[in-house]
Design a protein that fits this description.
Blueprint (H helix, E strand, L loop, with lengths): L4 H17 L7 E4 L8 E4 L2 H14 L5 H18 L1
Antiparallel strand pairs: 1-2
Helix pairs in contact: 1-2, 1-3, 2-3
Length: about 80
C-alpha cells in the first residue's frame, strides 16, 4: 500500500488550523462534496474528527488501508508542524 494523499493533506491542514484556532471550530467544521454528492453536508466537531472522516472515506472507497492512512496522517502532521 502507499500513503494516502488525502490524509496527508487533511492532517497538515488540521495541524495548522488547530494551532491557529484551537481544537474545535465554533459550530464545528462543515464538509461538503460538490462533485459526488452535491448538497450533502456533514459537520464534524473537531479538527481531529475532520482527519478521521477523511481517513475513513478513503478506506470505505477501497483506496487505502488503515496502515497507509495512519502513516499518511503522521506525515501530514509533520508537514503542518514544519509549516508553522
Amino acid at each position: 500500500d502507499y500513503p494516502c494523499g488525502h490524509c496527508v493533506f487533511a492532517a497538515a491542514v488540521a495541524t495548522v488550523l488547530e494551532a491557529e484556532t484551537g481544537p474545535a471550530p465554533e459550530g464545528g467544521l462543515r464538509i461538503r462534496s460538490v462533485e459526488h454528492h452535491p448538497g450533502l453536508n456533514v459537520t464534524v466537531p473537531t479538527w481531529r474528527a475532520f482527519v478521521d472522516a477523511m481517513s475513513l472515506s478513503r478506506i470505505h472507497a477501497g483506496a487505502h488501508t488503515r496502515f497507509a492512512n495512519d502513516d499518511a496522517e503522521a506525515v501530514g502532521r509533520e508537514v503542518g508542524r514544519r509549516a508553522l
